[in-house]
Amino acid sequence: MTDVQIATKMPSSSEAMDNAIVVTGLKTAFGDHVVHDGLDLEVRRGEILGVVGGSGTGKSVLLKTIIGLNHPQAGAISINGRDQASLTTSEERASRREWGVLFQDGALFSSLTVAQNVQVPLGEHYHLPTDLMDDLARSKITMAGLPLDAACKFPSDLSGGMRKRASLARALALDPHVLFLDEPTAGLDPIGAAAFDALVKDLSKSLGLTVFLVTHDLDTLYRVCDRVAVLGDKRILINAPLSEVVHFDHPWVQEYFGGPRARAAGIE
Amino acid sequence: MVDAAIIDEFVTFEKVDTQTRVTLKGNWIIDNAILIDTVTKEIFSRLGGSCETGRALAQTDMMRLDCSGLQKLDTTGAVLVRRFAAHMGEDCEATLMGVPEQNKALLDVITCCPVPAPTEPERPPWYLGPLIETGESVFLAVRSLGRLLSFLGLVLVRLFGSVSEPGRVRLVPVIHQMEVTGLRAMGIVGLISFLIGAVMVNQGAIQLAKFGADIFVIDMLGISHLRELGILLTAIIVAGRSGSAFTAQIGSMVLREEVDAMKTLGMNPIDVLVLPRLIALLICLPLLGFYADIVGVAGGIMMAWIQLDISPANFVVYFRDVITVEHYWVGILKAPFFAAVIATCGCYQGLRVEGSADALGMRTTKSVVQSIFLVIAFDALFAIFFTSIGM
User: Which of A206, A207, A209 is the best mutation test for B, with the most CBs of B within 10 A?
Assistant: First the structure.
């Protein structure tokens, strides 16, 4: 019994290579308030993983912990096979080039134009000639589905959906292997949200991205995600394709996927 | 010059029959971007201008680029490929051939879009430039003064309106602002006044001693500190300390749409945000001025004792004889006006913030500069006024 448990806890090296993100035994707490305790999660290379959970279950905290903005009390996080805790400063910098993050409100630099926002990571990590930087910024902006004239606008002049897209363009600037999205469709109208979902799916396919997606949007789960991880009781309750998750026997999961909104989204 | 071997790593040219076959190969990824960019630029310069490049090499109207040798490709690489193709095929059609299956989707999403050429901006004759700038800045200054005045009017209407409707003024924020802007400023105001009082006596005594009139340093300190310096310094410190805080607090609330939310909840932002700050300063600035007067004179007493050997008791007796209470009133009467200027400028600039974090910083700077300028300008006007009424 113990052997089996150890065997399941420790993925073999070939399995580990197939996982873009591996979180083991994660514990995060703010003071006395424990958010995660003994949380394990694997994200396979090239898949789109949707993370759901009730409000306050620590979805965003999990995302921030994985990208290194929160320091966990215990546990290990490895991205692309590299343990994040043991990296040196320069390794950490190199490692950060491999992922892009889309924050909930976009978090664009308000004093820079969209094009300049996209060029920030490029200029920080590579010293490219200006004309190439301009070309790159323009291509990322069109890739994110923005019209070209948005490039020279400031974030405050854009609508919420356009800000999300601009932020996605910035997240894609360094050709990341892993993309973290925090509620990408929150605050978008259904048409905009559907378009954004399609964009994420297309890009992850054409760029071979691994996507870690925190969402509340059932449509997004249904249309985009390869697998769905449910956060609850301070850990991951289940991490499986949606068709399995909906049959998972847990009151919150049943309520979540059994509600009228879930039916409207076409889930079961 | 770029080494030919390096060029060959990314692009090769082969003669096939009469045509030249161009092959792209190697890792076209962001880490190689600088290298690839120099390589492609080198190729174009070697081929001598770009206009005929594609046609000359291909000898047909179709330019074929062989991509089958591409190993790794990312979006940056795809942009570079697109750029290369666009350049090669400037006057003929360039086709990418043999794109590896896994890269097809990527190359399809990337488009290389030409920049629309901007039209030349209009340039006025040289002598008009400074004139236009001066005119514009005068216009802006007058307009912003006008706006400030109308804002002041709005605030005064609300302030005096609240006399008949006292419930509108929120007591708790007023007390809180009094603590923040008044009580907590006592340390710095006291320190600066004390030092200035001491320095005045120190420097004044040296100069007056030349005439054997060093006892008059007490008159000098009393008049200048009570009439002008005490309250002026206090107002400037408060403008820097609290005026800037008003702008930053209100400005970040505007940026996060909290002020809009307030309006929809039926709360008047002027009542909620401006009046408590204004009333707190109206109460606290005279008190701080009074405190600065006392501490400044205390600084003078200490310096006179050390330097001129005038005992504090003698100092106070002489001070009472020569300094009339009018000097004190002249100083302290200005305090409420300065308070109104600081609070109005701070809150007005805060409410005018829009857009970005940059605008917030700019408005905060403006609020401090504007309020210090207006405080000093008002002080000058008061000086003329009080002299002409013989006070």
Answer: A206
CB contact under 8 A, A129 and B37: yes
The answer, for A147 touching chain B at a CB cutoff of 8 Å, is no
How many angstroms separate the Cα of B187 from the Cα of each of A45, A209, B173, B193, B361?
Answer: 60, 58, 22, 10, 26
For the residues A163-185, what does the mean pLDDT come to?
A: 86
pLDDT digits (tens, 9 = 90+) for B287-335: 999 999 999 999 999 999 999 999 999 999 999 999 999 999 999 999 9
Identify which of B59, B56, B31 has the alpha carbon closest to the alpha carbon of residue B46: B56
Per DSSP bridges, beta strands A178-182 and B93-97 are unpaired
Query: Hey, of A143, A163, A201, which one would you mutate to test binding to chain B, going by the most B CBs within 10 A of its CB?
Result: A143
Smallest Cβ–Cβ distance between A175 and the set B75, B82, B355 belongs to B75
Q: What pLDDT was estimated at residue B18?
A: 65
User: What's the gap in Å between the CA of B34 and the closest CA on chain A?
Assistant: 6
Q: Touching check for A202 and chain B: CB below 8 Å?
A: yes
C-alpha distance from B358 to closest chain A C-alpha (Å):
6
> What per-residue confidence (pLDDT) applies to B23?
80
Distance from the Cα of A148 to chain B's closest Cα (Å) equals: 9
> According to CATH, what is the number of the domain B4-109?
3.30.750.24
In angstroms, the CA B294 to CA B221 distance is 12
Under a CB-based contact definition with an 8 Å cutoff, are residues A214 and A43 in contact? Answer: no
Q: In this predicted model, what pLDDT tens digit does every residue of B160-216 receive, in sequence order? A: 988 888 888 888 999 999 999 999 999 999 999 999 999 999 999 999 989 888 889
Asked if residue A179 lies in contact with residue A102, where contact means CB atoms within 8 angstroms, the answer is yes
pLDDT the model gives residue B51: 46
CA angle B373, B377, B381 (to 5 degrees): 170
Q: List the end-to-end C-alpha distance of chain B, in Å, as a whole number.
A: 83
pLDDT of B48 above 70: no
Distance CA B321, CA B308 (A): 19
Secondary structure, 3-state, B359-386: HHHHHHHHHHHHHHHHHHHHHHHHHHHH
A20 Cα to chain B: minimum distance (Å): 18
Query: Which ipTM score applies to this complex?
Result: 0.72
- Whether residue A6 has pLDDT greater than 60: no
Q: Which amino acid is at A25?
A: G
Range in A89-93, A171-175, B277-281 with the lowest mean pLDDT: A89-93
Residues A66, A212 contacting (CB under 8 angstroms): yes
Cβ–Cβ under 8 Å, residues A20 and A27 = no
H/E stretch holding B13? strand B11-16
Distance from CA of A207 to the nearest CA of B (A): 6
The beta-carbon neighbor of A154 closest among B78, B113, B356 is B356
Residue A1 in this model has a pLDDT that exceeds 60:
no
Q: Which residue of B has its CA nearest to A108?
A: B356
Could you tell me where in chain B the CATH 3.30.750.24 domains are found? 4-109
Q: Write the DSSP assignment of B174-197 as a string of letters.
A: HHHHIIIIIGGGHHHHHHHHHHHH
Q: What angle do CA B199, B200, B201 make, to 5 degrees?
A: 90
Distance CA A150, CA A256 (A): 38
CA distance A237 to A159: 36
Which of A139, A152, A156, A207 to mutate to test binding with chain B, by most B CBs within 10 Å of its CB?
A139
